[in-house]
Amino acid sequence: MGQVEATTERTVKGRPEDVYAALADYRGTRAGLLPEQFSEYEVREGGVGAGTLVHWRLQATSKRVRDCLLDVTEPMAGQLVETDRNSTMVTTWTVTPAGEGRSRVVVTSTWTGASGVGGFFERTFAPKGLGRIYDALLDKLAAKVEQ
Q1: Per its UniProt record, what Pfam families does this chain match (predicted)?
Q2: What CATH number should be reported for the domain holding residue 75?
């Protein structure tokens, strides 16, 4: 079993604090940013940044659905970490300045993949599929903060 990693990044028009606030607002803005692969979204505790407990189902492929229950932490300014209680998946969102009125958003998910042939395919294809899902989310984020 090896570590699998998927990273997507985007530069958006918007101040870092506004972009970060949109991502950290699980009770409000975040739900509207999720593409169709997410379902059963529910904030169970908190709702803004650290201390939030949020649930969703992520349908990465027609056959692969992850039931996620995520604890949100903020280990440093500009960074949200979502740790799934139901798996080894950890997703880190990092927002940094990218010039005047712009922000760089990087999202990285890591998890322990399967072994054998299944693990080979997971390491090969899962990062691309998750990257497409995060691209769709970042499109919605950009549209929201660029209004």
Answers
A1: Polyketide_cyc2
A2: 3.30.530.20
